[in-house]
């Protein structure tokens, strides 16, 4: 098979595409012809625009040689130059471990941590800070660092942001509302390759994965719905194949902000070769018109509720969970229990619910139970009171004093309060 002497330059990145001399689009839409023997371009006008329907410029080598009285078969009198060798990609850079460790303090001054304490209490806030290695920066007073740690325990970079300690909203009236640790370190040779925020948690293969846009949302959602591994891509446009390659073979649910449902639905199809993606329409169904205008995200929706209302009882484990392989360098999973960055709460004492159970039984047997559905709270409606009471009493009696099953007792007490209010 005879090879052509002149061909369009093969695509090797945007550096091999140029501005079309005809349509002058800003985007690089123009492919130049090259001499396959020398690797040289024939002329800056000899090529083809890929905007075929809008431009259609195609100036061939033959036309150029004819227009300039050059023999088409005669090589141009140019000195031979070897084709440039594509340089190997530079190795990924990482944040020094000592910089990372030094940031894991001064949480009492961290505005976002203060918001988590107000939302969840000290114990749960400490668990979230430990789980995601939420750090503190001096870049702004009260600023937060969200570290990007990969599954090898390597710290890729950290995003620095400032939040309100009361609302949890990001402070945007700054010259640069988002800053980066690798820039603050002023390392000109730093080769950045970002990963998912929370990626270090993916060494746990037992849970499905949930993806949101912002780091703040991932942390908060993890407190409400811990049955998922919550990770963040950083922005609407950062959901891509490079970041999601670590999810190969996983079950993943996407929770886009209100302005991103259509875009992420399209992305889910694009990335379907990597994982089993589902796109949640929760916000699309629940949001009011005002919330749509504000561009609500999942965290904005969740914080309207008490996180305890989302808690589900878990059966007590009969065997200890399998050991998790420790990570390199940082080794976040070597902690045998959550690290409390604040005053550690007192350990709960063994309980006995006999008196509570007796009082509740006396109350429910002494009233006429409603036959209509009863709204227990904003999240729950009881359709059959008699069956609900019977099943809950069976559970609390069989697990008396076990805190895992305390929500069952709490729901019975909550029902008593609702019925008492209705009767009065």
UniProtKB/TrEMBL annotation:
Q: Name the Pfam families for this protein.
A: DUF6371 (PF19898), DUF6965 (PF22292), Zn_ribbon_16 (PF21957)
Coiled-coil stretches noted in the UniProt entry, renumbered to this chain = none
Q: Boundaries of each Zinc beta-ribbon finger putative domain copy?
A: 4-69
Q: Pinpoint the DUF6371 domain residues.
A: 110-258
Which residue numbers delimit the DUF6965 domain? 356-419
Q: Which domain of life is it from?
A: Bacteria
| Protein name from the UniProt record | Toprim domain-containing protein
